[in-house]
């Protein structure tokens, strides 16, 4: 890695490194525990408090209805919107019924179906994120979990209606992003958003799942950190000691934010809306760009060159092949990182 | 007590001259492995392939030119770890000679120019951070502006944890251009190699117009260990292999490495970039596949493999002509239906 004064492209970097002392770890972990609190308001707790006349629609029209992801049209101040959200339970029984808010592929396909309906009728889309992640079991794999997430993301990047995303609790990885691509991203104060669960991160990087609090701090997954990184646009304050203490006031705060954000987006023509959404995604993630000359393309040497190389004749330059520049080398170990 | 022979066969050559095939346990001579496209000559096991050899496998000789080689990662989270993120990148660079886990450039496959992206699993598990995402996005965007097919050879564990949600959002960054490719009529071929999992599979890699996989490649959303650990279930035989995905309808073709280039060339020939042009859009011939469409595309393709394209188009038109008349009329643009009558 060279030069440090190169012009930066993409987003600006946070100025100061986070001081990863015990206080920072404790604070990050406190937020994770609040985001996972059993009494935290779930999508179906919030929806009736924010919207009028919510009509839940069921099924992906292909396999089954996934109770871990809910959605349907509702009225916000008398105007119809499409509401889609992950749905966790509040106790063991309801959590089992809801699969702990971890959707199968049919859940994401139901979301896609509802988004297409919103697109057809011009309804803005509001999504509520609250999942530890997409379900990783064999049945989900069989039915194409990765494809379901990928096509949801693709659909949202091109949807011709405004999308406002609200991170309510846990924004866990691909299962969250599958309904989390939007024009504006709002997060509750104690919500978290991460590329992998802190337990998973600690297990893969350090092989100790009990280091999850450290991983939570290292990944900077709190709403405040995500605002600083530009992933989240707006934070909604929670009442008292957290959203679990007062569902009504939490819902009222979210409603205010939604009203303002949708108002702001409503005035934009579709092409501008889509261009802004594309630009927002495109500029995500900082990198350094050096004016480095590309590596020369390699050619199989001619007979003259090949002979010249063997006989070591002068004036026969040695041009490396791609496989010599980037050789395959020894087998990679399987424990490399990735989420 | 076992007797140790001081001059056993193992010691005859340098330690790295042989590789043990993980599938059939045979010792394979490394030179032989390279000559055989890193496929075990005994059992056909496909060893992982580096970017360099992959370019030589797929591209016409000397045609590949790398783009955006100067993109390098920064440490946006100042990720705290026993080994800091920049040091991990430096170590991966020293191991592979690559500056990042992906490379992209323009090359040609049997004369078809393509925007080609490639991953190397040895560089931090082929994980996708901001730079890898940027390279994939630029590869797809260039395919769009140059109107050439995009081909991406994936090999990745997923999103790069050290960049947190910024890596997660690369899933959206790499997927967004695909909507534009759809609108512009530019094909995207996704090639999945061992292993392709996590966030890379849950974004562009699963969205190819055609998806090709290498035999027995591990392809899945969650790592197999995660899946069985989370659910505590017995995993089905062949779970998360290329063949498993083929059977379940998420992969189009499983192609041995020796045939990969020919198959890719065939796909590029059969699925050409749609003919562009305002007049085409207006009178409905923009995506015509009959002789008229091919001829109107002629001007754009001068110097390309025109004769092949026309040959295939003519066949397709003849086949449709034998079918139900009304269906034929519906399926064809008006200009062309008139022509055939």
In short:
Chain A is α/β, with parallel strands linked by helices and 339 residues long.
Using the coordinates shown, work out and report the CATH topology of the largest domain in chain B.
2-enoyl-CoA Hydratase, Chain A, domain 1
CATH class of the largest domain in chain B: Alpha Beta
**CATH classification, class level of the largest domain in chain A:** Alpha Beta
Q: How many β-strand runs of chain A?
A: 9
Strand content of chain B: 15-25%
Q: What helical percentage do the residues of chain A reach?
A: 40-55%
Number of E-state strands of chain B: 11
Uncertain segments of chain A are 1-18
Task: Give the oligomeric state.
Answer: heterodimer
- Mean pLDDT rating of chain A: 88
How big a fraction of the residues of chain A is strand? 5-15%
Mean pLDDT of chain B: 81
Gross CATH architecture of the largest domain in chain A: Alpha-Beta Complex
Number of helices of chain A: 14
CATH topology of the largest domain in chain A: 2-enoyl-CoA Hydratase, Chain A, domain 1
Low-confidence stretches of chain B: 8-13, 279-341
User: Mind telling me the CATH superfamily name of the largest domain in chain A?
Assistant: 2-enoyl-CoA Hydratase, Chain A, domain 1
What does the largest sheet of chain B look like? 8 strands, mixed
Structure commentary:
The complex is a heterodimer of chains A (about 350) and B (about 350). Chain A has about 350 residues and is of the alpha/beta class. Chain A folds into 2 domains: about 20-280, 2-enoyl-CoA Hydratase, Chain A, domain 1; about 300-325, no CATH class. Helices cover about 40% and strands about 15% of the residues of chain A. In chain A, helix 1 (about 20-35) crosses helix 9 (about 210-220), helix 4 packs parallel to helix 6 (about 145-160) and helix 8 packs across helix 9. The radius of gyration of chain A is 24 Å and the shape is globular. Mean pLDDT of chain A is about 90; it is low at about 1-20. Chain B is built from 16 helices and 11 strands. In chain B, the strands form 2 sheets. In chain B, strands 3, 5, 6, 7, 8, 9, 10 and 11 form an 8-stranded mixed sheet that branches. A two-stranded antiparallel ribbon of chain B has the order 1-2.
């Amino acid at each position: 890695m060279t030069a440090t004064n190169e012009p930066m492209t993409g987003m600006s970097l946070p100025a100061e490194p986070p001081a990863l002392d015990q206080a920072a770890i404790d604070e990050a972990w406190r937020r994770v525990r609040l985001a996972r609190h059993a009494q935290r308001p779930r999508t179906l707790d919030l929806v009736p408090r924010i919207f009028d006349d919510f009509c839940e629609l069921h099924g992906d029209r292909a396999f089954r209805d996934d109770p871990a992801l809910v959605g349907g049209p509702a009225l916000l101040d008398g105007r119809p919107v499409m509401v889609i959200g992950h749905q966790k339970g509040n106790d063991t029984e309801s959590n089992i019924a809801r699969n702990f808010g971890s959707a199968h592929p049919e859940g994401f396909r139901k979301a896609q179906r509802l988004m297409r309906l919103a697109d057809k009728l011009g309804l803005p889309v509001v999504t509520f994120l609250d999942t530890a992640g997409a379900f990783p079991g064999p049945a989900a794999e069989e039915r194409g979990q990765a494809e379901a997430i990928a096509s949801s993301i693709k659909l949202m990047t091109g949807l011709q209606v405004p999308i406002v995303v609200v991170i309510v609790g846990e924004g866990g990885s691909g299962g969250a992003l599958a309904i989390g691509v939007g024009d504006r991203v709002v997060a509750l104060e104690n919500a978290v958003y991460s590329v992998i669960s802190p337990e998973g991160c600690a297990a893969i990087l350090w092989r100790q799942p009990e280091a999850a609090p450290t991983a939570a701090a290292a990944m900077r997954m709190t709403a405040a950190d995500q605002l600083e990184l530009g992933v989240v646009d707006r934070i909604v304050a929670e009442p008292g000691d957290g959203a679990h203490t007062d569902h009504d006031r939490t819902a009222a705060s979210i409603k205010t934010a939604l009203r303002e954000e949708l108002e702001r987006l409503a005035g934009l023509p579709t092409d501008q809306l889509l261009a802004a959404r594309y630009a927002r995604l495109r500029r995500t993630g900082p990198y350094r760009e050096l004016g480095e000359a590309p590596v020369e393309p390699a050619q199989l040497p001619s007979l003259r060159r090949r002979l010249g190389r063997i006989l070591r004749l002068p004036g026969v330059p040695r041009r490396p092949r791609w496989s010599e520049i980037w050789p395959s080398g020894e087998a990679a170990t399987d424990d490399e990182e990735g989420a | 007590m076992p007797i140790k022979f001081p001059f056993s066969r193992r010691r005859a050559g340098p330690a790295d001259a042989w590789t043990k095939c993980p599938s059939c346990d045979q010792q394979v001579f490394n030179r032989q492995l390279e000559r055989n496209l890193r496929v075990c000559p005994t059992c056909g096991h496909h060893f992982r392939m580096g970017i360099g050899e992959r370019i030589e496998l797929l591209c016409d000789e000397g045609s590949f030119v790398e783009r955006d080689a100067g993109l390098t990662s920064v440490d946006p989270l100042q990720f705290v770890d026993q080994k800091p993120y920049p040091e991990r990148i430096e170590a991966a660079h020293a191991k592979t000679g690559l500056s990042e886990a992906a490379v992209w450039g323009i090359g040609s496959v049997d004369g078809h120019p393509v925007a080609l992206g490639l991953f190397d699993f040895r560089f931090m598990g082929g994980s996708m951070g901001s730079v890898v995402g940027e390279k994939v996005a630029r590869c797809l965007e260039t395919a769009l502006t140059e109107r050439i097919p995009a081909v991406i050879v994936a090999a990745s564990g997923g999103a790069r944890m050290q960049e947190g949600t910024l890596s997660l959002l690369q899933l959206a960054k790499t997927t967004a251009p695909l909507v534009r490719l759809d609108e512009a009529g530019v094909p995207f071929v996704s090639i999945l190699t061992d292993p392709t999992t996590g966030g890379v599979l849950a974004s562009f890699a699963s969205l190819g117009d055609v998806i090709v996989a290498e035999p027995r490649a591990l392809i899945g959303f969650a790592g197999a260990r995660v899946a069985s650990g989370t659910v505590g279930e017995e995993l089905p035989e062949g779970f998360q292999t290329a063949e498993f995905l083929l059977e379940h309808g998420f992969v189009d073709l499983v192609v041995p490495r020796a045939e990969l280039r020919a198959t890719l060339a065939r796909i590029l020939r059969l699925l050409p970039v749609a003919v562009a042009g305002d007049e085409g859009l207006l009178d409905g011939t923009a995506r015509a596949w009959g002789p008229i469409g091919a001829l109107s595309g002629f001007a754009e393709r001068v110097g390309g493999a025109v004769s092949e394209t026309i040959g295939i188009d003519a066949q397709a038109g003849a086949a449709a002509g034998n079918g139900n008349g009304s269906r034929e009329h519906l399926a064809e643009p008006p200009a062309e239906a008139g022509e055939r009558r």
